[in-house]
Amino acid sequence: MPHRRRTWALAALSAVVLTGCSFFSTDADTGEDDDTPASDTAAGGPEAPTLAAQVEAGTLPPVEERLPDEPLVVEPVEEIGTYGGEWRTYMMGPDDDNAMNPIGYEGLVRWAREYTGASGTDEILPNLADYEVNEDGSSYTFHLRPGTRWSDGEPFTADDIMFWYESVLMNETLTPSVPGWLTAGGEPVTVTKVDDHTVRFDFAAPKAFFLHDMATLDRGVQVAEHPRHYLEQFHPDHNPDVEALVAESGLGDWVALFENRVDWRRNVDIPRLAPWVVTDPPNDGTTATAERNPYYWKVDPDGKQLPYLDQVSYSIVEDAEVALLRAIDGEVDLEHRGLNQGDNYPLVSENQEAGDYRLMTYDYDSMNIATVQLNLTHPDPVKREIYNNKDFRIGLSYAINRQEIIDLVYNGQGEPWQTSPLESTPFYHEQLATQYVEYDVDLANQHLDQAGYTERNADGIRLGPDGQPIVVTIDARIDVFNWTDVGELLVDYWAAVGIELRINPVSDEVRTERRDSNQFDAHFGSGLGGRAALIVPWNYVPVAAPAAYGEMWARWYEGYPDGEEPPAPVQEQYDLWRQLEATFDADQQEELFKQILDIAAEEFYQIGIATPRQEFAVVKNSMHNLPEQMPSGSPYPNPAPYNPEQFFKSE
């Protein structure tokens, strides 16, 4: 593989063509023959009026002193925007951390707007840094953007990256086990400061998807979320008097204090690199607010400092029904979460004119709207035996009337499907897509009998190997995908073949907590990786926690001490995955992944329902610089890759 380098300028040329100016210049040629700077012709100057007033008052340095040496130029989706206004949205309760993801996506690199999940690195763009990769993909060098500052005005340098590496990642108290995305060849990454604006990540073996991980919100973005000058006061390696701060805080120990202080959604004091900084956290009350960062390091093509919008305002709502009412009443400027439920689409669609909004299509990266993930690593040995019986899983699959679910729950959208990548992708696997999808009660009973569970109680429920009725409880998130509705239908389908199913409606936070602690029978999953199967592989090979069907296997793979060594077929998949991670050759990656899919089809880890329907977001008509359609789904943290800092509102 040749030496690879991606610079800010090269990334820019892939997305924008500017005429008559340096890409990093804050002065632009408008194509006019007058002497008026472009920035003075668009909404009054190169910075927001509220910031200009602070400069005039002497409480804030001039904008040219706040911007980097070479600010990142963001090309608007439609047009140069104007300053002012707020982005109104909501949170599903004060613990709904995902609501703030769109304003927290600023890593060293980022996903391109038109992300497709393609193999290779063409869809990974420089952001806070440009990068170069050595020939075998074992060493990655990042050159930070000189002059970038945290929201408090302090410089962002290699020392901040090294603080994250030395004091967080390599601190066994804060990080008991280095996550798998930061290891290779059985060894953790080594990070070296080359100079004040350069860091190098070295792995013991090739790491083909490291840049993909660095572009992912809950992985690489954290590397640039640890301002050393602020956080070192809460760390015993840097502050011998940290216990005094612990006592003052009322928290249990320095770890609790540090984790509390690094939580940017709730700690208004932590400096940030994002376009907006939380000033009113969702700790209590009914609202939360994030206000513009005066040191934000991106500009538009006219040299105007971003963001355009003054603030992001969150209403803390009780449930999805309240969110829906706010949306159709025109009180939401941009949001999709909680709206894509049941029969909401006709209601939301028909109220567009009255609510003065439009609908934006989300192209969700999923291969299935609702996968049933039985916990194959269940701590109860009886339940583990039952769930690992392949005939048991096959019997449950045949018992599902998928077309009825599609018609009743998903408005006729979708087709019966197991858990293969989508047919439009190079990884489509016919067996994994179509096996056991027929609705056939006789076949269901046949396989459940073959599983050995022929005895039943007086209510017709089959008895397990311990002589007790087989009862499965499935955790269903209450805010997405109509999983509780699907579950209610499954209750009847499975009762008809002698299996009792109970639905446990939970929040995403509770569901994740139960999954991570391995205290659950079954989960509904969202089938991520329909297109980006190589980037989001856990529905096919259990390499990360979202693979709830093999939770403890995933933890073993990631190096957690409580993980459980998996059986031979999973071990074989892991061997193939390690080979795949070690090569940049797309053809070889494809061949290795097809072998992984062969094993997934044979093992039949989880049960699919149907291909996903199209999703939508509500967009207020006064909101601009958004596309008509946008990718959606992990690892693409929509709408963040479309640069919310360039969104703006008209009067």
TrEMBL record:
Pfam families listed in its UniProt record: SBP_bac_5
Residue ranges of domain Solute-binding protein family in the record: 124-527
Keywords: Signal
Sequence segments annotated as region (Disordered): 28-47, 628-651
Entry-linked CDD domains: PBP2_NikA_DppA_OppA_like_4
InterPro entries xref list: SBP_5, SBP_5_dom
Domain of life: Bacteria
MF annotations from Gene Ontology: peptide transmembrane transporter activity
GO process terms (BP): peptide transport
Signal peptide: 1-28
Name of the featured protein: ABC transporter substrate-binding protein
